[in-house]
Amino acid sequence: DQPVPIVVVDSEHRFCLDEKAISSILLQNDIMNLPVAVISVAGAFRKGKSFLLNFFLRYLTNYGTDNWLGGSDELLSGFSWRGGSDRDTTGILMWSKVFKISLKCYHLVPILELSLSGFIMSIREICCVNRLHGKLVNKTLLNIAQNILKTVLNVILLLFTEYGRLAMEESSEKPFQSLQFLVRDWSYPYEYEFGYEGGRKLLDKRLELTEQQHEELQRVRTHIRSCFSVFLIFFLLQIFHLFKLFYFCVNMLCYKYIVFKTHLYDLLCLGVTSIIVDLSLINIDKLKNYHTYAHLYIYYNLFHTMSTPQATAEANNLSAVSKAKDVYVNLMEEVCGGDKPFLNPARLEDKHQEHRQTSLDGFDGSRKMGGVEFSMSYRDQLEVDINESYENFCKNNDAKNVFRYARTPAVFFAFGAVSYILSGLFGFLYLTSFSTIFSLLCMATLVALVMWAYVRYTGEHQAIGQALEVTADFIWD
Prior knowledge:
elongated; Methane Monooxygenase Hydroxylase, Chain G, domain 1; 3 domains; alpha/beta; 14 helices
């Protein structure tokens, strides 16, 4: 098991998605159709994101056991981390192993870990990452060192709330699930204690509305709580400062500091628990792994060619089209799938209309961005896709009709028999010319029948076979 880079930024500041890497994780057969939860840690480089994620790895690996932290001599392994001033990892990394946890509401929930490591991003790139999080991630931990400055908080809140404002125009539900600030190396426990309680007090103070604030800052603070189902701050003890003079100790766990251990456990335990709650309450449509992969693939391809809001709306609508089409195909498979017998064409048409409407209603009812007019073209495309699928279902259904197979040889046999009888009749009446014509037709029909049988048996010369089918249909009509 190892961290897998799934998104990197090239020299031209474009996001590059490693399709093979992401599909190897998300499209595993045993988890592909399960609802998925994603833990993500984001923040500036050299602030301990990998260090924190490795504790999540250890907690999830030993989930349900008391001694999840392990022994004091165990290396903290997983995502690469070290001391020093230079960055160690860059890009978006996902852990290759998917952790599966059984719940009462779901039989099994895969949990993924995601790290946004060492990006120096433009505003455009930050917006892209925020939108990716808003669509895919159940829990985002923003990793900040020492303190939450008002200037930093204002920028972060502005980015998140702008996207939240657009999303909430299309839906009354909260666009994000959970955002938590993790303040590392908190140096002021005498003002606000470690853990969630101290963070809540500071958050209330930072988000306090005053008349002296600029109008935009007041609007952001009013709107931010409506964008998230969970919005918290957590303070963690200065653990790195304990090791800064001894480089050889950086890669070793130190457990004798009970305060650090206690609050670390609270962070991990409550973090995973809140993900489970989020999955039950927020993820109403039970997001599937393959839909997660589709979101990633569509979004990063669109983002290269259009503006951020347009790319987000485009990806959102394409995903809705994909899910609605899946609904139609799955319902039709139950009616006339490969293992189903031949169905009366009129009955098939009725089922098509019924399931087509179900699919369109699902598309109309799904959460989308861009407005009704923007979504109409995607709805039209969905109808085109449904009609194409219906044509394929009709062809497959016709192929199951035994009499459909027998019609061509029956037509040729009947035509040949009639030609033979008429040839004999005209010969008896001494109408030699007509007798010869019908004799030739009888022989041609016999040759066509033999050729049709050869094509059906060998599968070769399909063009000739298709021409014979068309001729038989013409004679039948």
